[in-house]
Write a structure and sequence with these properties.
Length: 298
């Protein structure tokens, strides 16, 4: 149960940040032996988020925070990272109802994917995320795009359709079987000639590309353990102003919880930290589905 939150009502939250040696900041993370606590000052309260690898360590952090701030703290019942609710279902429903819906072709691809791949269909980007990808490609005026993780081609279709007629999408995946489902949908959408499908480990495909800025848009949605390597290969190949989009950056909330230490979680934390510190990029992380990061090359 390694996450817990608390709200301390106060008209002077900045005094607590001062006590935590973070004077002048409205947010700070304190590292203790057993874990961390983030302090966030708002106008009328101090929000605390404690995290530790297990329940005993979390109690240690909570006690240390109360001592450091010299105040009683009423902590929430601890939860694990995968119990964090990213977006309230009512909000999710409302935003779907107020976004342009997927068209017939995308809906048919979603149905075909479910029938053909069963549980694996959960890997497909959602209709709202697909719409976001199309919107971003159109807004950025991208002409050359690259995608890592095609599956049955839903996100590829959303990206390719938003490119101009002479645009190109290099689409990377290891699976001939899954991507074979995509091809007829790209054809029916009239974008098959824009999609250059490269079957093989995406890292090999990326490394074989010229190491110079050529892409206006990149989308990463494949094996999570390789995200740091994909990011390292793609950023130098983005033109200035080019946009990198990464999916699943929350890992279902597990990135927040130090108890989760599988390779995917470690890799995702690593890439999330690397991007926010990368002075080649400006980035914003969005609570869309399982978390989407937008990183624009300076
Ligand atoms: C989450 S799915 C992609 C979903 C897709 N973006 C969509 O909208 O339907 C991940 C894909 O990554 C592919 N993949 C996994 N490891 C890979 C690798 N090393 N290189 C290339 N593709 C890989 C899988 O075959 C799978 O199709």
């Amino acid at each position: 149960m390694p996450l817990s939150t608390a709200r301390v009502a106060t008209s002077s939250p900045e005094l607590y940040l001062k006590q935590a040696d973070a004077a002048g900041h409205d947010r700070a993370t304190i590292a203790f032996d057993q874990g961390t606590c983030t302090l966030i000052a708002t106008t009328d309260e101090l929000l605390l988020i404690a995290a530790a690898a297990d329940a005993a360590a979390l109690t240690g952090v909570q006690d240390a925070v109360a001592r450091k701030l010299a105040t009683g703290v009423d902590w929430s019942t601890p939860i694990t990272g995968d119990e964090v609710q990213i977006v309230d279902p009512a909000i999710e429903d409302y935003l779907l109802a107020h976004s342009t819906p997927a068209d017939d072709l995308l809906r048919e691809l979603a149905v075909t994917t479910r029938e053909a791949t069963g549980r694996a269909a959960g890997m497909q980007v959602s209709a709202d995320e697909g719409a976001l990808l199309s919107m971003l490609v159109r807004l950025s005026g991208a002409r050359r795009a690259i995608e890592v993780g095609v599956f049955t081609g839903y996100s590829s279709l959303c990206i390719a359709r938003a490119l101009p007629a002479d645009g190109q999408l290099i689409a990377c995946d290891v699976s001939s079987e899954w991507t074979a489902i995509a091809r007829p949908f790209w054809e029916r959408a009239g974008v098959a000639d824009r999609v250059d499908l490269r079957i093989g480990p995406a890292l090999d495909t990326l490394r074989a590309l010229p190491a110079e800025p050529a892409f206006d848009f990149a989308f990463i949605d494949a094996d999570k353990g390789n995200y740091p390597a994909y990011y390292e290969e793609i950023v130098p190949r983005l033109v200035p102003g080019g946009l990198l989009v990464l999916d699943n950056v929350f890992q279902g909330g597990r990135v927040l919880d130090p108890a989760f230490q599988e390779a995917n979680h470690v890799a995702m934390r690593h890439v999330n930290e690397a991007i926010v510190r990368d002075d080649r990029l400006d980035c914003v992380m969005l609570p869309v589905r399982d978390g989407v990061t937008l990183a624009r090359k300076r």
